[in-house]
Write a structure and sequence with these properties.
This protein is of the alpha/beta class. It has one domain: Rossmann fold, CATH 3.40.50. It is about 40% helix and about 15% strand. It has six helices and five strands; from the N terminus they run βαβααβαβαβα. The chain has a five-stranded parallel sheet with strand order 2-1-3-4-5, with helices on both faces. Strand 1, helix 1 and strand 2 form a beta-alpha-beta unit. The radius of gyration is 16 Å and the shape is globular. Bound molecules: flavin mononucleotide (FMN). Flavin mononucleotide binds next to loops.
Length: about 180
């Protein structure tokens, strides 16, 4: 099973990257094939295609689903994340997407609600379960990593269980009943 993790924040010294890296590491631990796809903060910006060894298009083409990690900015998600999402279309179709939010009090939940609408337009299937990291800066140690990752593991299990279920069911669905308009 292949489930890339897409993460975007424009801020130098961005904090929610720890959350994205945590989720990515947990996927690898479970034997899931997964690329970590991100563009760099604004001042150190290079096109995604040059930064990543494999083009985003071919990663998503062969993916069985996607996890989007979104920090919340003014009740929305960063424009940079939208830019990365908008770079593709059919590669997303009829695959599940799970969301991880990070922020202040909201834990990124409002950014995630907006992303649900966007991903439906790309014919992705947004799953109900999600992971939220409120006051994300307080959850990190001096190295910028999660201080207590074990606190989040039970929620992560529930989230991944649902995502993997959809990934398998929709893969079978795409193979058995290819969609045509
Ligand atoms: C300009 C700005 C606006 C923000 N707006 C919100 C918000 O509406 N809701 C929220 O929960 N957190 C908000 N935050 C907190 C961010 O989600 C938090 O700082 C998070 O670490 C940002 O992700 P990043 O550090 O990975 O870029 C805001 C932060 C900034 C700098």
């Amino acid at each position: 099973m292949r489930i890339p993790v897409l993460y975007g924040s424009m801020r130098e010294g961005r904090k929610s990257e720890a959350v994205a890296k945590f989720v990515h590491a947990e996927l690898l631990k479970r034997g899931i094939e997964s690329e970590y796809v991100t563009s760099e903060p604004y001042r150190d910006r290079e096109p995604l295609e040059r930064k990543h060894p494999e083009p985003w298009k071919s990663i998503m083409e062969s993916a069985d689903g996607l996890i989007v990690v979104a920090p919340e900015y003014n009740h929305g998600y960063p424009g940079q994340l939208k830019e990365m999402i908008d770079a593709l279309t059919i590669e997303y179709n009829y695959k599940p997407v799970g969301f991880v939010g990070a922020g202040g009090y909201s834990g990124g939940s409002r950014a995630v609600e907006q992303l649900r609408q966007v991903m439906i337009e790309l014919r992705m299937v947004p799953i109900r379960e999600a992971l939220y990291f409120p006051m994300v800066w307080e959850l990190l140690n001096d190295k910028g990593e999660l201080k207590n990752p074990e606190l989040f593991l039970p929620r992560l299990e529930t989230f991944l269980k649902e995502l993997f279920w959809y990934a398998e069911a929709l893969k079978e669905g795409r193979e058995k009943h290819p969609w045509s308009k």
